[in-house]
Amino acid sequence: MGALVNRLFGIPVGRDDLRRLAGSPEQVLGAELFERADGRERGVRVVRLRSGACEVEVVVDRALDISHASVGGVPVAWISPTGVASPALADPHGWGTFATFFGGLLTTCGLDHALGPTEDAAPWFDYPGQPTRSWPLHGTLSATPARLTGHGIDWDAAEPAVFVRGEVRQATVFGAALTLERELRIALGGTTLTVRDRVRNVGHAPTPHMALYHVNAGWPLVGEGAEIVAAVDEPRVATPAAAGADWRAIVAPAQGVAEQVWEHAPRADGAGRGLAAVLNDDIGDGRALGLAVEWDLASLPRLFQWRVMSETNYVVGLEPGNLELEGRHAARDAGRLVVLEPGAVIDHALDIHLLLGDPVRDLRRRVAMHGRVRDGG
User: Fold this and answer.
1) In which residue ranges of the chain is pLDDT below 50?
2) Under 8 Å CB-to-CB from 285, ≥6 apart: which residues?
3) CA gap 118, 367 in Å, rounded
4) Helix H segments across the chain?
5) pLDDT value of residue 374
């Protein structure tokens, strides 16, 4: 029957069956490259991955990050007021990141800085004309275009999938030279997006590496009565508005609500992976919807949670990363800053599950088995 699909519309379908049933596989599956053509998004390249069960848009010109995402036709990601703006509009200073931060299913923060804007010494690069360097909020990676190296339907893999892969180079003269090699895949008929990243130091000097994977859930998943579940210990409060609040709750949006941020210490399962999710048992029409993130704790040992219950900015972010809330200075002083030697690589892996219907309940059981969710706020 040829390579199997994980059931399309309830029917197991192989490659040969698909040739018989459809004029082209792209009738139900695809990895299409296109270009946005208007407004702030003009010229931005995107690959739309369609598995037959879910769709995601991979923004090639924004570091192969992910904007829109849906499962069974229902959107799950938050898109900010900026939209998927061109990287040419990015402001690489201070809080200027917000002017082009589209959110989406995934914004990757790094590669040499994450968390708040700062200035720091740059002893690694031994350039007397610039003894210190400045970084904007969450670094500059997501405003860097990628070189697309492949996209399509991989029928020959052990698990056939739609995929896109590419490379992002983040480099400066007399400074960091890091590359991100990324491949994104969704099994045919599947609803799990796998993200496999390799960060490589292609420069001449030891270079700090900071990473934060900013996964963003929006309405209708984020709605009154939905909740955050995670296999974590008691969190640390990262913003004043989070003090005393229940990190698990999601309420209706209101005006003038400040952002809340927590830092969690994830518990590992038997495979050394963390697990966190936003789950909604009824989005308003009786259907359950969810977004879950699993990731390797070996390279990303922390989890930040961003919650904004404000009108327009109505979003929950689940953010695996390799930095504690005190940031780069404290990590460097404590000897915990990740530094890549010339030629060295580090791999990051996470799976993003888009859940509709029964899988939401299954995920709750998985979290309970993975690690008990604590009561309290």
Assistant:
1) 1-4, 373-377
2) none
3) 36
4) 15-21, 328-333, 358-370
5) 42
- Please give the radius of gyration of the chain, using alpha carbons only, rounded to the nearest integer: 20
Indicate whether this model's pTM tops 0.85.
yes
Query: Do 117 and 92 contact (CB within 8 A), yes or no?
Result: no
Amino acid identity at 36: R
Instruction: Give the helix/strand (H/E) hosting 286.
Output: none
Sign of CA dihedral 282, 250, 78, 178: negative
Q: Are 352 and 192 in contact (CB under 8 A)?
A: yes
- Structural contact between residues 310 and 256, judged by C-beta atoms closer than 8 angstroms: yes
10 Å CB burial of residue 349 (0-12, 13-18, 19+) is middle
Instruction: Look up tokens 């995402």; give the residue.
Output: 69
> Do the Cβ atoms of 234 and 266 come closer than 8 Å?
no
Closest by CA position to 350, among listed 233, 183, 160, 165: 183
The tens digit of pLDDT for each residue in 27-70 reads 999 999 999 999 999 999 999 999 999 999 999 999 999 999 99
- What is the reported pLDDT for 18? 84
Give CA–CA dist 244/184, Å, rounded. Answer: 38
Terminal C-alpha separation, the chain: 53
Whole-number pLDDT of residue 371: 55
Residue 375: predicted pLDDT: 40
Q: Are 340 and 198 in contact (CB under 8 A)?
A: no
